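agent> Task received from the user: take the single chain below, predict its 3D structure, and emit structure tokens. No templates, no multimer pairing.
agent> Plan: (1) validate residues, (2) run structure prediction, (3) serialize to tokens, (4) report one or two observations.
agent> Step 1 OK, no nonstandard residues flagged.
tool_call: predict_structure(input=
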Amino acid sequence: MSDQNSETMPIDPNVDPYGCLGMVRNSDGSITRLQEPLVPVDTSNDLSHLVFTKDISINSSKNTWARIILPRELLHSTTNTPKLPLVIYFHGGGFIVATVDTPVFQGLYASIASEIPAVVVSIEYRQAPEHRLPAAYDDCMEALHWIKTKPDELLSNHADFSKCFLMGTSAGGNVVYHVGLRAAESWDNLKPLEIKGLILNQPFFGGIERTQSEVRLVNDNMLPPIISDIMWDLGLPEGADRDHEYSNPMVGIESNPNLFDQVKLLGWKMLVTGCDGDPLIDRQVDLVRVLKELGVQVEGSFTQGAYHGSEVVDPLKAKEFSLLVKELISHV
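)
tool_result: status=success, residues=332
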């Protein structure tokens, strides 16, 4: 992915949705990737000097890997510095675009690591449609087991495995939801990794019936419903529609009212964030309402005047989000 320059005109997603995603749709329904979508990267508040990063392979046969990000000052400390909370992060991209290495995510990693402070591990998972869901969930569960069985020395030396949080943005928030449910059921097999909370940042959910916010923001320039539809069409299992439980969490909850019993038993806290400029906000608000009705320890943080993905584009929004997460972590 290249930095957007002043001569690059972004493609209108409502006019050329596949082009906006850096791909073309072939007559047989397959896609051809042309490039990563261009997203402006604000370098005016570069925090890269505050953190140290290291990339580690998880499963070479799947080409899955992780980037470890931690405050640089930890490496130069001469005192017995306490270990930091461990934040396992899942990136966005609608399951079909973006990677751990996509430039727009780097500022958020650095903000989380330096503001909380925390050790961040960003997980690379396989993309759809070449690898449809649940491939991403499987890869991220495998990553949790990799972290607990083969920790890099940066993790064993600086990360507090007893204070772990799963965090994700957009599609990554969807991953947190589904992987979190899996992890709750197998929590004993993940020790010494102890998850304390799930953080869903503008989570990517869908459904066949349009919500009021999706209708209101039908021509949104960041994530209009037509783009979400394409992402779900390419990401869900073959033949599934947007009311599949991977897309629509209400379907899974309605079919299994006890779905969150283990999350409640473990005492995990959940945070769901969103904003009124995101077409997905109604789905996010509804999820918080239903989880509260089920007795889950969940808080919703919904703001005005922002847009989908603002935390990974705007450094000030990234800092605001990092401080919100810091507040949650400090009370666990």
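agent> Step 4: summary for the user.
Strands lie at 23-25, 31-33, 51-59, 64-71, 84-90, 119-123, 159-169, 195-201, 269-275, 297-303.
agent> Done.
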